[in-house]
Amino acid sequence: MSFLNRKKAPGPHLGLSMVAALTPPEVEVSLTDENVTAIDFQKEIDLVGITALTITAKRAYEIADTFRAKGVKVILGGSHPSALPKEASQHADAVVIGEAEGIWENVIEDFNANKLQRIYSQCKQPSLLNLPIPRRDLFTNGAYYFRNTISTTRGCPHACSFCSVTSFFGHTYRCRPVEEILKEIETMNYKKLICFVDDNIVGKPKFAKELFRALVSYKLKWIAQASVTIARDDELLKLAAASGCMSLLIGFETLSQDNLAAMGKKVNVVDEYEKVIRKIHSHGIAIHGFFILGLDEDDEYVFERTVRFAQKMKLESAQFAWPVPYPGTALYESLDKAGRIVTKDWSQYESSIVFKPKLMSREILQKGHDWVWCEFYSLPSIWRRLGITHRYLLPLWVLNLYYRSFWRRKLRVNRDSNKFKPPTSSLSNIRTWFRLN
Question: Is residue 10 part of a domain?
């Protein structure tokens, strides 16, 4: 397959490359990422390992069934099989629940002895000491925009109802030794952008400070997910900037404190959002905001309110989503118990609204969601947020124009969303709109 005909993905997932690193050296390993290359079902292999998210579960099962029909043994793992092992076991010879360390070696031994168990599960959280370096040599060359992905922690100290991270990692937050992280970075081309794939890189401030201090001499440029708490610790924020932080991906989620309380995200305080954003910006760090539309306290005014806030605060980029009830999460349990989940066709999760919103129809939520994306990434909006003097002007304009192009193409198919206009609750809201514009 030529480079021009091959799909390109933002960055490689580390899960299977870590599993490959855990595999005994005498075992020949190959890695296929279907985001960028096609699967060769005719290749002669003895064992297939597949990792699956909820949105990829249906496809993962199809792949597994195809290989098993050929007599090839299949192992399924990842967040979705870990949440629903009985379902996954219908398509696999074995299911790995949770993290691979301490389990995968046993899987290989049992496979070689023709004694695979149906379920392999962690008895305790594996140590993050002396982890092998992921097999990045197995990644397809030229297939990713950002190849330098690295993990320094696992888990998150918070327990948001919509997030599968907490259920997968067992309500823990663990950190790797800083010296081991540095050794791994030295195996990479760290002159290029580093993407820390941690769910919250500042979940333990003491560790984050130690890491950031150690990174200063490397003169990196990096991005990572972080919570709003980074702005409450001046030393932590200064060290992040000094160590080369280019952008932080922050889950603001909602402008409703009641929504935050319902989702269990006590760490966020809506009244502090403006202060948080201005403080991070004052250190030259860009912000990619995450917002959820259609929570139980959201009516039809949420679309206008959210996008105007993001524009007013000049967020360099943002993503807007509706709630997704992933299996294993508290959100899934509550919506399922209330009979508000409309389908369990996992392939529709994220691409479609699979639950009944409380204060609006699914149709209005879909149209409002699409309108917010297009409004935020309109050319006037991009110009007002970025201008021509931003510190990271070129990459941010490229990112914004990419999102703009994507949503313009998408809405050519769904022309109704182009006609959608969100309601304004009062004359004061209309005045606010003109003031922001």
Answer: no
Task: Write out the residue range of the structural domain in which residue 262 sits.
Answer: 136-436
Long-range contacts of 341-348 (CB under 8 A, 24+ apart): 345/58, 346/54, 346/55, 346/57, 346/58, 346/80, 347/55, 347/57, 347/58, 347/59
Tell me: do 161 and 210 sit in the same domain: yes
Structural domain includes residue 129: no
- Please give the full DSSP string across 247-286, using - where no structure is assigned: EEEEEEE-S-HHHHHHHT-TT--GGGHHHHHHHHHHTT-E
Closest CA to 149 of 37, 276, 33: 33
- The reported pLDDT for the residue numbered 340 is 98
Q: What amino acid is encoded at 357 in this protein?
A: P
Report yes or no on 356 lying in a domain.
Answer: yes
175 in the same domain as 107:
no
Based on the fold, state whether residues 253 and 352 are members of the same structural domain. yes
426: amino acid identity, one letter? S
Task: Say whether both 113 and 145 belong to one domain.
Answer: no
3-state secondary structure 138-151: HCCCCCECCCCEEC
| pTM flag (> 0.85) | yes
Question: Which is nearest to 137 in space by CA: 146, 129, 145, 147?
Answer: 147
Two tokens at 91?
Answer: 């398509």
Distances (CA, A) of 100 to 59, 108, 208, 328: 21, 12, 25, 19
pLDDT per position as a tens digit, 82-126: 999 999 999 999 999 999 999 999 999 999 999 999 999 987 889
Q: Which two tokens stand for residue 281?
A: 């910006």
Task: Supply the pLDDT for residue 399.
Answer: 94
